[in-house]
Amino acid sequence: MEQLKTIGRELAMGSQGGFGQTKEFLDFVKSIGEARSKAEEDRIVMQEIETLKKRIVEPDIPKRKMKEYIMRLVYVEMLGHDASFGYIYAVKMTHDDNLSLKRTGYLAVTLFLNEDHDLIILIVNTIQKDLKSDNYLVVCAALNAVCKLINEETIPAVLPQVVELLNHPKEAVRKKAVMALHRFHQRSPSSVAHLVPNFRKRLCDNDPGVMGATLYPLHDLIGLDASAYKDLIGSFVSILKQVTERRLPKSYEYHQMPAPFIQIRLLKNLALLGNGDKQASEHMFNVLGDIFRKCDSSTNIGNAVLYECICCVSSIYPNTKLLEAAATAISKFLKADSHNLKYMGIDALGRLIKISPEIAEQHQLAVIDCLEDPDDTLKRKTFELLYKMTKSSNVEVIVDRMIDYMISINDNHYKTEIASRCVELAEQFAPSNQWFIQTMNKVFEHAGDLVNVKVAHNLMRLIAEGFGEDDNTADSQLRSSAVESYLRLVGEPKLPSAFLQVICWVLGEYGTADGKFTASYISGKLCDMAEAHSSDDTVKAYAVTALMKIYAFEIAAGKKVEMLPECQSLIEELAASHSTDLQQRAYELQALVGLDAHAVESIMPADASCEDIEIDKSLSFLDYYIQQAIEKGAQPYLPESERNGMSSMNNFSNQHESSQHTLKFEAYELPKPSVPFKAAPPSPVNDFSLVPDSSYANETRQSAPYVSVSDRGPAELRLRLDGVQKKWGQPSYSSATAPTSSPTPQKSVNDGGGEASNSRRDVPYDSKRTQVEISSEKQNLAASLFGGSSKPDKKSASSSHKSARTNNQSVEKIQATSELVEQKTPVQPPPDLLDLGEPTLLSNPSYVDPFKQLEGLLEPGQGISVGNHNSISSPDIMGLYTDGTTINQSSSSSMASKDDFNLLAGVSNSVTKPGSVNKSAQPNKGFNPKDFLEKDALVRQMGVTPMSQNPNLFKDLLG
């Protein structure tokens, strides 16, 4: 009675402006509560903001008044309005020496600011000072601000002081210090990685509150690496046992439940540590059994602990007795009248059926009741349970129930989820292809465009592939049933675009295949669809393509095609459409109708949608024409990436030239061969191409200023070096590797695991229902959902025959490819004029040595011999400026492997025959390539005729 009087006096004081607030503030709060609309509330708040803007800037405001203004700003922010003009005053209040004002300032700052705000830097020093305060209330206020405001950059500024507070004599400070370190770990794990032993140490704190706070950071650490914390299982089990035995102080009890929140956190940690570990789980079995026996299920908090214990049992290594205890607890949840407990029971049952599927059979009637419950949340949770327990024996009942529920709801988000689950279950457990097609039709019809586009393609592929066997009759029946069902649905007013695309494709492919429907009837339906959905270009495109297939099949069969008037008007309309795609399809249809039967059959063969199309990416059928054109003097084709050529040239020059000595890349005139030789077109990768291109010179001047370009006219030949294999220095590109053989397809083996059979437990669903006769409909539904649990799940016929057919096609492809490779005869490419290695003799008798064609440019005896292992004479350095290609693949690969071979070193250190004078070994005489190139550049800059047109220059340069 005395307490009631005290409360009454306090309320009376509050109504008159007590508790430190003025009557003005209380009237503001009251007016907000009495506002009848959001507009009226906003008007009141804006008036308050204008009042605070005027008063908060007044000089010499009393501290009591400033505290009230800050609280009014907090209230304005809570209502969703901007009060940023007063943030700085809250920051100033944290500097006050008065404890009440300081705590008010910290409270306001933590509500106003975030960790990235510009004002954070102003309170870091204040927090550092307050963490060292002798008043533990000030320290606690600072730690609260640390958890909210300190970001990753400012963690090092306060971390040492927070670590010191772990040993503070007050348990409240130690608890908040642990919470602050946990927050640091969440924001920057690397900053507190060295402090993990402190968490282990605080787990043994004398105060249960500090120990309970330590369980949260340990939970995060265990989630990252459970193996590193297996040694904590004994400690957790010991603490949990002490809690259940009520050894903690009475202050930690909640509704006569000993420390329930500590129990829940310990069970979460044990679930992570015992997952899949039998030895670790065995230490937990006894204490989990004690919780099942001692837990009070008459209160909400007791049911929460019981539910968490069930979750822990479902996560650790299975134990028969614990599973039985969990099933008993679930039965209590399902028998309860509360929807919350039923929801919790359905969720717990969904966790246990992964371990022991037969547990669901004991509660089948309860699941049926939850499925028919008016509570939508409970019904959705029950559908999640059915989704988890679906198999081939009950897929039809469950999917039909899901589709019926999907039709009844208006939530597009959840409708999309239900549709995706129906599609997934139908693809995985479909008993037959006919049922799968009918189910997909229902999903498309009622879910609309919410269905994924891939589902439509999977449906079309299934209809095209059929059963995957040689039973053509079954495949034709499947397609005929699909055509008939789609013709019935064409007249529906609202069909999604993806479903209409499927209908058009099926009618075009198989509309006239069985002869039940004429081409005129199918084409009329397609024209009606295109006209009814005139705003959807995709549907019209599918309809025109379907018309093209129908007319093509009729022409190929030798029948006379008479296009309907509505089809002709549709084609004329699409031919004038703004969509280029529709125009192209319309013109293709008009052109196809005028062709003969043989051409049409070749263009559009019947039932060829699943045939593999082999694409010759190399276009080998053009090799003969290319070879003839090259023999007549045509240039080989260069890809567009190599046509500009400047990027590879820049890389080439940057890697192998200094800025003082740059190599000039202008081309000499290509000498014409006296005797043409026949060879395959050279590869563009290993080819010097002289391209008469005026634009190339402009690009060279802009992007490569070190390249000297002579002003001889736009038709001057220039050397192209992009993609060329270099003969000195480091390689600029990787040699092409030999094609690897195709891997042999391996058959996938599905190992079916047997279900663990536990002992049957007869737990009655509800004692009240024993006197009531259960309806036969529910019994049949329960038998359909839960019957035959011991039967092995069967995959759908469609999934099995698809994989078999894919493997057979892969084997046939590999065999055909290997036979084609064996029949091909390799064509030897022309020789590489830059190959200074061992030459490979050619078997072609018409081959002419290209070096002999250059003898007319040199005097007898002026050739330069480059030595190799066999002392064979090699071409001179002028071969750098001629057109060269690789002799054959073997020599090309051998050159690519000799990466350390240096052309200039080979010229200067050439080995001559015995008795001859080696001019290159003399320092002041003989041919020097470096001087030769410098002289060549000087001559070009002076505008002198190139050496290729003045043979006498060779004599001067070569001595």
UniProtKB/TrEMBL annotation:
Family matches, as Pfam families:
Adaptin_N (PF01602)
Regions of compositional bias (Polar residues) in chain numbering: 644-661, 772-782
Where does the Clathrin/coatomer adaptor adaptin-like N-terminal domain start and stop, copy by copy?
A: 47-593
> What are the protein's UniProt keywords?
Golgi apparatus, Membrane, Protein transport, Transport
What task does this protein carry out? Subunit of novel type of clathrin- or non-clathrin-associated protein coat involved in targeting proteins from the trans-Golgi network (TGN) to the endosomal-lysosomal system.
Q: How does it assemble?
A: Adaptor protein complex 4 (AP-4) is a heterotetramer composed of two large adaptins, a medium adaptin and a small adaptin.
What is the protein's name according to its record? Answer: AP-4 complex subunit epsilon
Source organism (scientific name): Kalanchoe fedtschenkoi (Lavender scallops)
